[in-house]
Amino acid sequence: MLLDLNIPRPDGLEIAQFIRERFATLPVIIISGYPDMIDRVNQADLKAIVRLVVMKPIKPQVLIDYVLAGGDCIRNHAAPAD
Fold this sequence. Notes:
The chain has three helices and three strands. The chain has helices spanning 12-22, 37-43, 60-68; strands at residues 2-4, 28-32, 50-55.
């Protein structure tokens, strides 16, 4: 999932915490314009799901390279059983 943490309520941190609680294997890529985002991710205890933090402005090639290099993305995870 691509997620910007600075969005209106529920904000991105709340959404990321929901993902961590309900979909713990869903990898998240954070998109941010704030240089302290890695600290915020660590403080919110989201390291388990956040695989990459990409700074704005986004260079699409960074995401492409990450996926092509075998980065932890949704294609690497089996669909959850109901």
